[in-house]
Design brief:
The protein contains four helices and four strands; from the N terminus they run H-H-E-E-H-E-E-H. It is an alpha+beta fold and about 190 residues long. A hairpin with a 2-residue loop joins strand 1 and strand 2.
Length: about 190
């Protein structure tokens, strides 16, 4: 007698194929999920690392900004101190100007010219006096122009009063005192 298998073998084969298909599908899905999960973790780690570096840079930038503001404040203080030292240097240089002016006046005033009044306003000197002749005044102006301390002698007026002595005439003159910096430069050059 012939052996005949009456079991539904096709259905069993179909079910076996279906189980194998779902097993492979599940394995592929699990592998894809694992790949996506690990890629996500990898990129998340990179993003977190970059965020950490960014935060570090932000903190350093804030510290540098604080240092910059401190440096700016120090620079302003430095400028103020430089201004103060400049003023002190100017005062130091100008403390002998009165003596230098009187010494130079004694050098530039010739015989026959008599000074009655000296008045200093800023860098100019107003001189009032009497002169025996106009030649003496012109000699005085020439000496002032040659002077290291004075410049720009301007004779404002010469008046002769008939009621008083005819020999003397009154004059007013304005002379500028050279700036202290140029004056100190010329005196420094002259000294060894």
């Amino acid at each position: 007698m012939a052996y005949i298998n009456l079991l539904p073998w096709r259905e069993e084969a179909e079910k076996a194929k279906q189980r194998a298909y779902f097993t492979v599908l599940t394995a592929v899905a699990m592998a894809a999920f694992a790949i996506v999960f690990f890629m996500n973790q990898y990129y998340q780690m990179r993003i977190d690392g970059q965020n950490t570096r960014n935060q570090f840079l932000k903190n350093e930038i804030q510290q540098l900004d604080l240092r910059i503001t401190k440096i700016k404040a120090l620079n302003e203080k430095k400028k103020e101190l430089q201004k103060r030292t400049y003023v002190i240097e100017q005062l130091q240089r100008s403390r002998n100007v009165g003596t230098q002016v009187l010494d130079e006046i004694a050098k530039v005033v010739p015989n026959g010219v008599y000074l009655t009044r000296l008045e200093k306003q800023d860098n100019s000197l107003n001189i009032t006096g009497k002169s025996e002749s106009n030649n003496h005044l012109s000699n005085m102006i020439r000496e002032i122009e040659r002077s290291d301390l004075f410049e720009d002698a301007i004779l404002e007026s010469i008046t002769s009063n008939d009621a008083k002595s005819k020999l003397l005439s009154d004059f007013k003159m304005r002379v500028h005192i050279k700036s202290l910096i140029s004056l100190n430069n010329t005196t420094d050059k002259g000294t060894p």
